[in-house]
Amino acid sequence: MPRPPLPDDSLICTQPFEWCEIREDGRVFLCCPSWLKMPIGNLLQQSLEEIWNGTEARRIRTSVLDGSFQYCNPKRCPRRASVTAPVQRLGGVADPEVLAALRGRKTRLPYGPKKLNLCYDRSCNLSCSSCRGQVWQPTRLDRELVGRITQRLIQQAAGSVQTLIVSGSGDPFASSAYRQLLQEVNEVDFPRLRSIELHSNGQLWTPAIWASLGAIHPYVRLAEISVDAASAATYAANRGGDFGLLLENLAYIATLPIALKLSCVVQANNFRELPAFAALAGAHGFSAYCSQLVNWGTFSREEFAARAVHLPGHSEHEEFKGVLREIALLPQVDLGNLRLLLIEVDG
After folding, report:
1. Counting C-beta atoms within 10 Å of the first and last residue's C-beta, which end of the chain has fewer, N or C?
2. Which residues contact 248 (CB under 8 A, 6 or more apart)?
3. Residue 59 belongs to what H/E stretch?
4. Burial letters for 104-140: b for 16+ Cβ neighbours within 10 Å, e otherwise?
5. Which residues have CB under 8 Å from 66's CB, separation 6+?
6. CB neighbour burial string for 274-283, b if at least 16 within 10 angstroms, e if fewer
7. CA–CA dist 323, 274 (Å, integer)
8. Strands across the sheet with 41-42, in order?
9. Structure confidence by residue, pLDDT tens digits, 9-62
10. C-alpha span between 161 and 153 (Å, rounded)
11. 122 three-class SS
């Protein structure tokens, strides 16, 4: 017998039903790998259609429909703690196709990915300690691999994509592949595209570069700029960039019709600057987003432990929670997965 429709008050996550991320080795994920580690396939070995409705993808969707969320990391996912989209009650899902799939308990979807997060080119102009040990520029073989993935995505995903996110690793303005893709966005290749979200360090977001990307201006309404600091010294230590140039570019970006958020990966050397970070965002009319430090292989176990102030065993953990409480109620601040610390302590 067919199962009854999923009730509207069910707590669900739309992410595995609309979103996928492509990494530099071709692996495809239905969420940020830091929050959901299991890949669902490899674009260099399979078609996106095979991956999107493959065994692993359907298994993850089943875990959402049965309420177990067994493949998710609840301590890292910032949306599980706050129950904010894509984690929400079923009745609040706006997309009719996604709503029908969830309500009908479908794990094999009749549509392709609607949101595509490009994380397959690590090219960047900075060497942020929380991400990489040095400035990464692609070799010829790297560029060929990036080209193959780009070609496959345009052929297999562009027809269904409504939101394009560039980039979860590297910088969209530092990557020649991403810049070329953005310069060539058009309605023929991307017939359903409605929005483009940019994730940048802001150092290269100048008026001249922005003018060269005129094709995407009508699509870009949301962007995130990683800052990780509120002072020149801390910015240099954490991101290796020019804080003065960042402030200059932020002033320019604030004049564009784009909703901006500044983000901060919080660690021992910057948590005391969080009030100033929130003020910096507020002064420009931006939101401020904070997140836990993750070890992507750039730190030894000892160095990570010294930096990870969000961990209960850290010597400055209690002081850190006090700073979080100081900014928690500010209207422009989203504590992301750090909010769990206050929920666990304050109830």
Report:
1. N
2. none
3. helix 55-65
4. eebbebeebbbbbbbbbbbbbbbebbbbbeeebebee
5. none
6. beebbebbbe
7. 7
8. 41-42, 27-29, 19-23, 115-119, 163-166, 195-200, 220-226, 259-266, 287-292, 333-334
9. 999 999 999 999 999 999 999 999 989 999 999 999 999 999 999 999 999 999
10. 10
11. coil
Cβ–Cβ under 8 Å, residues 157 and 48: yes
How far apart are alpha carbons 337 and 202 in whole angstroms?
23
Q: What is the pLDDT along the chain (347 residues), one digit of tens a residue?
A: 567 899 999 999 999 999 999 999 999 999 999 899 999 999 999 999 999 999 999 999 999 999 999 999 988 888 887 788 999 999 999 999 999 999 999 999 999 999 999 999 999 888 777 776 666 677 889 999 999 999 999 999 999 999 999 987 889 999 999 999 999 999 999 999 999 999 999 999 999 999 999 999 999 999 999 999 999 999 999 999 999 999 999 999 999 999 999 999 999 999 999 999 999 999 999 999 999 999 988 899 999 999 999 999 999 999 999 999 999 999 999 999 999 898 755 44
Kindly list the distances between the CA atom of residue 344 and the CA atoms of 18, 31, 83, 98, 300, in Å, as whole numbers in the listed order.
Answer: 31, 24, 15, 32, 28
Which tokens in the block code for residue 320? 């850190």
Decide: 13 and 23 in contact? Cβ < 8 Å: no
Strand, coil or helix: 68: coil
- Tokens 């995130």 found at: 224
Beta-bridge mates of residue 261: 224, 287
Residue with tokens 């297999």: 156
Structure tokens at 315: 């010597």
The answer to whether the beta carbons of residues 57 and 37 sit under 8 Å apart is: no
Amino acid at 114: K
